[in-house]
Amino acid sequence: MDPNIHEQELQLAEQDEEFERNEERRIWREETVRRWRQRMAIARASLALEFLRSVVEEAILQYDGI
Questions:
Q1: Is residue 45 packed enough to be buried (19+ CB in 10 Å), middle (13-18) or exposed (0-12)?
Q2: pLDDT, tens digit (0-9, with 9 covering 90-100), for 49-66
């Protein structure tokens, strides 16, 4: 076998492995960011609901004249 062809095959295999590693890292980052965004959205919704509860509670207290 021609040494140059063997060297080229090794380089291509290394490039393929590097591409796969990069792709796995990219997917991991996307999944991590997606989960973080979901947690932040849940936290914001929870805060908004708590604020709404306090506003409604205050309105009820004022309506009842307390």
A1: exposed
A2: 999 999 999 999 999 986
Residue 11: the pLDDT is 93
Alpha helices for the chain (secondary structure H): 3-63
Q: Rounded CA gap, 29 and 24, in Å?
A: 9
For residue 1, pLDDT over 70 is answered with no
Longest CA–CA span in the chain (Å) reads 95
Work out whether the CA dihedral 29, 31, 37, 40 comes out positive or negative.
negative
